[in-house]
Known about the structure:
The structure holds two protein chains of two kinds.
Chain A: H1 2-11, E1 18-29, E2 32-44, E3 49-53, H2 60-68, E4 75-80, E5 83-84, E6 95-98, H3 110-120, H4 125-138, H5 154-166, E7 172-176, H6 184-201, E8 204-209, H7 212-218, E9 221-226, E10 229-234, H8 236-241, H9 246-251, E11 256-266, E12 269-272, E13 280-283, E14 291-296, E15 302-304, E16 313-324, E17 328-335, E18 340-346, E19 360-365, E20 371-372
Parallel strand pairs in A: 3-8, 3-9, 6-7, 7-8
Antiparallel strand pairs in A: 1-2, 1-4, 4-5, 9-10, 11-12, 11-14, 12-13, 14-20, 15-19, 16-17, 16-19, 17-18
Helix pairs in contact in A: 3-4, 3-5, 4-5
Chain B: H1 2-49, H2 68-71, H3 77-110, H4 116-128, H5 131-144, H6 151-176, H7 179-187, H8 192-220, H9 224-229, H10 236-243, H11 250-277
Amino acid sequence: MTQTEEADSAIGTELAAIELKGIVKTFHSHGDAVAAVKGVDVTIGEGEFFSLLGPSGCGKTTTMRMIAGFDEPTEGDVFLHGKNVVGVPPNKRDVNMVFQSYALFPHMSVLENVAFGLRRKGVAKDEAARRAGEMLEIVDLKGREKRRPRELSGGQQQRVALARALVNRPSALLLDEPLGALDLKLRQAMQVELKRIQREVGITFVYVTHDQNEALTMSDRIAVMNDGRIEQLGSPREIYERPASRFVAGFIGTSNVLSGTVSRTGSGKAIVEPGPGERIMVSHEAVPGDEIELTVRPEKIDVRSDPPDGDGCALRGTVNEVVYLGMFTNYNVTTSTGAEVVVFVQNVSSADDVATRGDSVWLSWDPRHSYVIGA
Amino acid sequence: MSATIVDLEETTTAKPRRARGRWGDRLLYGYTWLIIVWLCLPIAVMIAFGFNDTKGRLNLTWQGFTFKWYAQLFSVPDLTTALVNSLTIALIATLGSAVLGTLIGLALGRYRFRGQGSLNLVQFAAISAPETVMGASLLSFFVQLNVGRGYWTIVVAHIMFSLSFVAVTVRSRVLTLDPAIDEAARDLGAGGWTAFRLVTLPMIFPAVLAGSLLAFALSIDDFIITSFNSGSTLTFPLWIWGAQKNGLPPQVNVMGTLIFAAGILLAVGNAVIARRRR
């Protein structure tokens, strides 16, 4: 909750591009009420690249469809540039959408597709064609104006869909998993491309995805959604480094969740000591006896055979599995408390692995990299 | 070395298979032509006897070639009226069933609503019900309503039975469309009607056309349902039925030939348009 406030204040006083206030959406099917969105509050700033990230069924697409006007919220308000648009049909809203299936008009040429929105706004035919041509140039499709959508590759169709939406200069562009149908290589190339285009046109992007890498790569801010609610809202770094809940920790990247009973406290730190020489420290206000849960990312942990010096975090464990992955090696370690910990060790030298299966090892990391979750 | 192995394999495996394939191909080829000839034979006879220089009232034996029936096409007034009736009824019925059928097909394909299942069922019932049953029930319907049978009851009856064919073809087309395309049109500023006119209709048009052609074909040669509901109005098939006891004038063959030719033209036109769209 504090993070939401922080992020909101970062936008300052300028009029937000999109503001959702207390959005609830309930669908009725066969007499049952199914809540898809259970209270979403979010403010998206002008020119921001904002991602709604979450597993399927978390309500992210429904949230986006309420911004576009295809669904109306059961409760709450949607503001576009300070104007409440609840009840305004999609064709009267100043936002455009890029559909997951692209939804290009198959009977029209690429140019006609892109000029469609301008023509509906009453822009003259020649002028619309000129502007559509310019936009096709931005998305790198010059020379394909006369083609039909089906004559283009998936990546090209994707860019036509993007151009068709962007040419209208909407106050916000909504993208519904736009890269979902592309193969990995093309997807990565398009991520960079999308970010470039967004910088070039300076339009607010709201990006719906279930792919955490996509969200981390492109976004200024991410709202992680689960079960119709926003679990955490923040910059990619905040979300990754300091997951606010067990769900976020598990959904974004690989994360280790450790739990224990606080045995000592001091200078704002809680210390858990599972065994002799072992200690986990974390910045947290607690009293001895408190049960805490904390996370630490796999790449922050070191594996060594002797107990670490100094006063960092240290845990004892047994190596279960060693998987060499080229750039790094993945160790699965069972700690003395029975927790499963994943560790990524970068393969800096070409020497042998630091430990093999069955070895007794020490895990150590800087206390600044452990975060209490659910706090 | 490897090339010779490949060659060897090709010759050994491909040869017998190709020989067998050739026999099968020939058989299929011959059978296909047999079917085509079989189907075309009655039509060929109809066309040929339109050129028959018959002297008597019966046009059953070949008596020499002539174009005169084409010149005297409209010399049997009743027959001409019947043909005009058939053509105008078919056109109005086609238009009516195209509009209503398209709307029903769209609704069935795109939305979920109460009574959808029953509507589907009724449609297929209308397609599969025996014509005598439909004709008789329409007759009792008109009698109940105290409507005089004639031209317009035939039109209503024809719209009624050809409607489902349009609806079914349009529905199956709509089901293949991505619903997001319609949403995209609205998202880009098109209102409901504009989105339909510029996006939905062009996409379903091949189905509308196919359904309409079917409706026209069904209407123009319908006999059973029409005969129940025609009152004193005569259509082309009804006139032929009435006249055949006294012998059919060769003009009937000529008109049949012309209707057939028009049908062929429409079918070819449809195929050409469909290919260009693909």
